[in-house]
């Protein structure tokens, strides 16, 4: 996942190519290092790809080392469960980790890093969360 290629779309979203779906283990993750912080890419059993800030909202545990199940990841430190699509903690826990919009074309994975709002925020226009 070392190549970085950027492309501006008609909506002015800049997508950064970070690798292939095949670079991410099924029910696992890979980390992409960015100037804004580490991003964890997750792959579900159905080959869906999600990206979150690699930091649990509880005690900053490395979500990339957690267990992926369905559309959630369980933090390896204190078993908090986080929704992959939004970064929201599952009740009764509260909090949110940063979410990064993902685009998969064929087997290529790209991130909208400019649309990401890390440090406990949601993404912006690229996928509709706020």
Oligomer: single chain
> Got a strand count?
11
Overall shape: it is globular
Averaging pLDDT over every residue, what do you get? 85
User: How many helical stretches?
Assistant: 0
> Which CATH class?
Mainly Beta
Q: Brief overview, please?
A:
This protein is an all-beta fold.
Comma- or semicolon-separated keywords:
130 residues; mainly beta; Rieske Iron-sulfur Protein; 4-stranded antiparallel beta sheet; 11 strands; globular
Q: Can you characterise this structure?
A:
- This protein has 130 residues and is an all-beta fold.
- The protein has one domain (23-115): Rieske Iron-sulfur Protein.
- It is 0% helix and 38% strand.
- It is built from no helices and eleven strands.
- It has strands at residues 5-8, 14-20, 28-34, 37-43, 49-53, 67-69, 72-74, 81-83, 99-100, 102-105, 108-111.
- The strands form three sheets. Strands 1-2-11-10 form a four-stranded antiparallel beta sheet, with no helix packed on it. Strands 3-4-5-9 form a four-stranded antiparallel beta sheet, with no helix packed on it. It has a three-stranded antiparallel beta sheet with strand order 6-7-8, with no helix packed on it.
- Strand 1 (5-8) and strand 2 form a beta hairpin.
- The protein starts with a strand and ends in a 19-residue tail after the last strand.
- Mean pLDDT is 85; it is low at 119-126.
């Amino acid at each position: 996942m070392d190549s970085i290629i950027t492309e501006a779309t008609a909506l002015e979203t800049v997508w950064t190519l970070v690798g292939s779906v095949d670079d991410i283990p099924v029910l696992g993750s890979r980390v992409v290092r960015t100037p804004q912080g580490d991003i964890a890419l997750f792959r579900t059993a159905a080959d869906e790809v999600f990206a979150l800030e690699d930091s649990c909202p509880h005690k900053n545990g490395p979500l990339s080392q957690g267990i992926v199940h369905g559309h959630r990841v369980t933090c390896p430190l204190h078993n908090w469960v986080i929704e992959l699509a939004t970064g929201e903690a599952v009740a009764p826990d509260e909090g949110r980790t940063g979410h990064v919009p993902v685009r998969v074309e064929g087997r290529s994975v790209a991130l909208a890093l400019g649309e990401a709002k890390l440090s406990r925020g949601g993404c912006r226009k690229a996928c509709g969360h706020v």
